[in-house]
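Lab notebook, design round three. We kept the backbone fixed and only want residue identities now. Task for the bench partner: fill in a sequence for the structure below.
Input structure tokens:
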């Protein structure tokens, strides 16, 4: 009812209802925790996809990768809301969500930092959109009520994030200059 009245809610009621049957047993908590782990582990693989490029005019990725941050936030919120309602989780919802999202940030930050430190020359040639993924990580913090910039800073240096924004915007300027020179 609060959502229908225009108030901001932690979890979308329609999404909670849609996935409620998938949160009804004790194994669900483990499965949904593993969902966040799966996203955290596989997300850096998108750095090899040429379509994962961050486009500054639309402030998003070409392949809609920026939607992952919203999906993870909303799915986690609804899943743990359902687990608390069903009695499978005993702690308050806010505590559970902050803890689970902190774990998610730790895992995804670790995987992204491995991309930054990768020394294999052949693999470096394949990693084309590293900066775009680092920006996605920052977008996850902006989109989530449960991830703070402090959590991100504890796991992922802001220097890398700042350099990623600079690289993406400088790349945009170079492309604009190239187009202007051709004209």
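Proposed sequence:
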């Amino acid at each position: 009812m609060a959502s229908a009245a225009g108030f901001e809610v932690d979890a979308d009621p329609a999404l909670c209802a849609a996935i409620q049957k998938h949160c009804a047993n004790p194994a669900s908590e483990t499965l949904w925790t593993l969902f966040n782990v799966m996203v955290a582990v596989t997300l850096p693989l998108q750095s090899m996809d040429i379509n994962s490029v961050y486009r500054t005019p639309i402030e998003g990725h070409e392949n809609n990768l920026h939607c992952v941050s919203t999906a993870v936030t909303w799915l986690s919120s609804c899943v743990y809301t359902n687990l608390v309602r069903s009695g499978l989780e005993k702690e308050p919802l806010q505590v559970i969500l902050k803890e689970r999202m902190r774990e998610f940030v730790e895992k995804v930050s670790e995987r992204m930092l491995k991309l930054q430190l990768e020394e294999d020359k052949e693999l470096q040639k394949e990693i084309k959109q590293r900066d775009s993924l680092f920006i996605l990580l920052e977008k996850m913090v902006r989109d989530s009520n449960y991830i703070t910039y402090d959590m991100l800073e504890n796991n992922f240096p802001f220097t890398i994030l700042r350099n990623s924004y600079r690289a993406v915007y400088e790349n945009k300027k170079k492309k604009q200059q190239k187009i202007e020179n051709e004209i």
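Keep this in mind before ordering anything: The helical segments are 13-19, 26-42, 67-85, 93-117, 121-126, 130-143, 149-155, 158-182.
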